[in-house]
Structure formats: structure tokens, C-alpha cells
Specification:
The chain is an alpha/beta fold. It has eight helices and ten strands. The mean pLDDT is about 95.
Length: about 280
């Protein structure tokens, strides 16, 4: 049995809280560069140039790329041969978020749903824990902004609707979202499972690096088709018109009940922030 002290989790989350908000992943930056080449609208090209410049300033000057520094969503994969000592995982994660958002001068955005009273330290984080084989512990930190999160939807389709109903719902959701999620966006969707599982997996799908192929050939084909349909809507960057509204569509599927066809869609803004580390 391998032991990992909770303080190591806290330190990892503290560091990722800041780096995720300052340092946009290379996969996203390269997607911006591809978008600049492919975009036909002069306005759209100007948007991509601004996004590239913004990401460069954030990285070099260690400042948030967006004023909305997000709800701290943390995925923890813990090996079954690991024992965390010195505290609970969730408490360690929250301590890391608390320190990172304070030290990094990151906006605290978490509040009571009714009174809207701010918790003042961006906690509690949302922590998803999965037990896996081995003696490792992997943490993925994915802060999610409120504007794009408002565009998320979970629905229960009629099973007979099949792929066509799934595709139509995803495309229509993007069209309804318009400029609200600060496009160019990444679209994550989970087909199947249960409503709550689909919502989580749709968000987790956003973490997959942009430009990578879905390992499931059926889903890979659907992703290509959906990306073309969404971008052919003509909404473009920031919804100002153009060719590139979405940088990628990431699909996952999970077996579901014979009487159901759950579908969850989670749209991420252009600031697709996520960092991961292994302890």
C-alpha cells in the first residue's frame, strides 16, 4: 500500500488553480492558430488574433486570461493501492483551491444559490473521485466559467430517435447558445448512462485534447459531422459571423436503460482551461 500525504494534494491543486488560469494549453492555442487560417470573416480573423494575443499576455505576465476564473471542478483518479494520510481528499482539494485563488488573485465566484452570498474563497470545489487500478493518484483541475456553464443542458430523448435526434439536439443547443458561451467553443456531450452520469461525463469530455481522434470510430465520425454542421451555421467567433464557431466536438457514450436515451451537452468557452498532475 502506497501512502500519499494530503498536503501533496493541496499543493498540487494550489499550483494548478493558478497555472490553469494563466497558461492555456498548447492544444487550444494551436486550435486558435488553425482557426485563424481557416476563418473567412475579417471580423472572425480579428477575434482569433485577439485570443492569441490574450493567451500570450496571460502566460507571460501570469494574469488570468479571463475575469471569470471559474468554478473549481476537480477529477481525481486514485489507485486502489493508495492510502491518503493526514486528511481527507475533498478537504485537501478545497484547501488547495482556497490557497490558489487567494495567492493567485483569482476571482472568487462561488455563492449561496438563494442569498447569493459569496463564500469568499471559491470553495467548495466540485470533486469527482474514481478508484482505478494501481498505486497512482492523478488530479485534473478544470475551472469552468459561468457564461458557458449556463449553456449546458441534459435531456431525455425518445430511444427511437437514435443518432439523428442526438445530433439535432446538439446542433440546436449550439445555435440557441449563440454568443453567450464566448465562442469559439468546445462541445462536450455524453450519450447514454443516466442523467446525472451523462452530465458529469459530458463535462469530462471537454478535457480531451483538441485535435485528437475519438478512439471509437462511430463517435469519431459523428464528431466530424457535428463539427461541420455546427460551423456551417455561420455564427463564427464570438457569434459575430464566420466559419469557426466550434473548435471541436467531443463525444462519449455509456450504456443506458432500454427505456431511456439520456443526452447531456456541456459547452466550454474558448478559455478551455485544464491542468493535470500525477502524484
Amino acid at each position: 500500500m502506497r501512502e500519499i500525504d494530503a498536503s501533496a494534494i493541496t499543493e498540487a491543486v494550489r499550483t494548478m488553480s493558478m497555472s490553469a488560469n494563466y497558461d492555456l494549453g498548447d492544444d487550444v492555442v494551436k486550435a486558435f492558430e488553425r482557426g485563424l487560417e481557416q476563418e473567412e470573416s475579417p471580423t472572425g480573423k480579428a477575434v482569433f488574433k485577439a485570443l492569441l494575443e490574450n493567451s500570450k499576455i496571460a502566460r507571460n505576465e501570469k494574469v488570468p486570461m479571463c475575469q471569470d476564473t471559474g468554478f473549481a471542478v476537480v477529477f481525481v483518479e486514485i489507485g486502489q493501492d493508495v492510502h491518503v494520510t493526514g486528511g481527507a481528499i475533498r478537504e485537501a482539494v478545497n484547501a488547495g483551491v482556497r490557497k490558489g485563488y487567494e495567492e493567485g488573485y483569482l476571482r472568487k465566484s462561488i455563492c449561496d444559490p438563494f442569498t447569493r452570498t459569496n463564500t469568499k474563497d471559491n470553495t467548495p470545489a466540485v470533486v469527482f473521485t474514481e478508484v482505478v487500478d494501481g498505486a497512482g493518484l492523478k488530479i485534473t483541475f478544470a475551472p469552468k466559467g459561468g457564461g458557458s456553464e449556463n449553456m449546458a443542458r441534459v435531456t431525455m430523448l425518445t430511444p427511437s430517435g437514435g443518432k439523428e435526434a442526438v445530433a439535432d439536439f446538439i446542433v440546436n443547443r449550439c445555435q440557441e447558445a449563440g454568443s453567450n458561451p464566448c465562442p469559439p467553443v468546445i462541445v462536450g456531450a455524453c450519450i447514454g448512462g443516466t442523467p446525472e452520469l451523462a452530465a458529469m461525463l459530458a463535462k469530462k469530455a471537454l478535457i480531451r485534447p483538441l485535435g485528437t481522434k475519438n478512439p471509437d470510430p462511430e463517435l469519431a465520425e459523428m464528431e466530424d459531422q457535428l463539427l461541420a454542421r455546427i460551423n456551417n451555421l455561420g455564427m463564427g467567433p464570438q457569434g459575430l459571423g464566420g466559419r469557426i464557431f466550434a473548435l471541436g466536438v467531443h463525444l462519449v457514450k455509456h450504456p443506458c436503460h432500454i427505456a431511456t436515451l439520456p443526452l447531456a451537452v456541456n459547452i466550454c468557452c474558448h478559455a478551455s482551461r485544464h491542468k493535470e498532475t500525477e502524484l
